[in-house]
């Protein structure tokens, strides 16, 4: 594949036979700035059968933007938090701002928060402190906790146990193997699968085994765009419409129909994020 191909977005696929929700994306990182940009991106997604998206914050300015974006288009919902790699920056201003933003009715989750031991932007101690604070925030406002877990499985589970997990916990871009998936499912957690679950390299084998066994009642699908573009377009720009490819791949992996899986995923997503409550607000 040439460098030019790497810069070219995947082709826009035929629409799914039933609509799904991209449970975790970053519209601002995909290049959206204004309402028109958001509308164009979500129009592309909707044409592919991805009718709604949850756009997720990375820092405080992103959190403000995601809430605005969710107000620009009724197909967009928001999640707000300070990313674990920025945890050392969680001061009083950040806490007050997030605590205010999360109460917006179009904010459907506290996230993404958690632990990232792969990068060294923020030491483990402030990450764990910030994670505990976000857990408490999710419980205070009664919204799902959206977890970023990179090379930190055991500490994530330990802290959830120590703090008492919120009613709904989502492992965004689930990265564990089948055994870790079983432990999370047994705890009642929801696992969200991104394009990584479609990869064909040896490192993805355990993840694909996990994606095959998770009950669909505890399963979401996402892009994490602009990152993690699904197979066979790995390395190319990602957007919410590409969750179409992930759904089709997961349906084949789980030996079920695409329409059946799409309907079930949407039902789970609506329940997990309480989207009926948002529509009524």
**Mind describing the biggest β-sheet?**
8 strands, parallel
> How much is the radius of gyration in Å?
17 Å
Question: What CATH first level would be assigned?
Answer: Alpha Beta
Order of helices and strands: HEHEHEHEHEHEHEHEHHH
> What distance separates the N and C termini?
48 Å
The tally of structural domains comes to 1
Approximately what portion of the residues adopt beta-strand conformation?
A: 15-25%
User: Low-confidence parts lasting 5 or more residues at pLDDT below 50?
Assistant: none
Q: For the record, what is the CATH homologous superfamily label?
A: Metal-dependent hydrolases
Shape: globular
- Side-by-side strand order of the widest sheet: 1-2-3-4-5-6-7-8
Helix content: 40-55%
Multimerization state: single chain
Structural class: alpha/beta
Q: Number of helical segments? A: 11
CATH architecture title: Alpha-Beta Barrel
Number of strands: 8
Could you report the average pLDDT, rounded to the nearest whole number?
96
Pfam family, one: TatD_DNase
Binding site for a divalent metal cation 2: 148, 172
GO molecular function, one term: metal ion binding
Protein name: TatD DNase family protein
